[in-house]
C-alpha cells in the first residue's frame, strides 16, 4: 500500500522521537484511515436514504 510506505518514510526521518510525537503519529496513522472510512460510510448511507 502506498499509504503505508508514505507513513513509514515520514516516521523514519523524524529527528526527535519522544513519547508525545510517537503518540501523535500513531493517532494520525490509525485515525486518518478510520476517519475516511467512517466519512465514506456516512455519505453512502445518506445517498441510499435519498434514493429511497
Characterization of the model:
By secondary structure, this protein is mainly alpha-helical. The chain is built from 2 helices and no strands. It has helices at residues 2-12, 19-51. It is elongated. It starts with a helix and ends with a helix. The model has no long low-confidence stretch (mean pLDDT 82).
Shape: elongated
State the distance separating the first and last CA atoms.
36 Å
The helix/strand series, from N terminus to C terminus, equals HH
Largest sheet: none
- Overall mean pLDDT stands at 82
How many DSSP helices? 2
Strand content: under 5%
Task: Tell me the Rg in angstroms.
Answer: 16 Å
Going by helix content, strand content and strand pairing, the class is mainly alpha
* Helix share bin: over 70%
Summarize the structure.
The protein has 52 residues and is mainly α.
What is this structure's SSE topology?
Blueprint: H1 2-12, H2 19-51
Q: What characteristics describe this protein?
A:
2 helices
Amino acid at each position: 500500500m502506498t499509504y503505508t510506505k508514505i507513513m513509514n518514510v515520514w516516521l523514519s526521518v523524524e529527528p526527535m522521537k519522544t513519547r508525545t510525537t510517537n503518540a501523535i503519529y500513531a493517532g494520525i496513522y490509525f485515525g486518518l484511515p478510520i476517519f475516511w472510512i467512517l466519512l465514506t460510510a456516512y455519505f453512502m448511507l445518506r445517498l441510499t436514504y435519498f434514493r429511497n
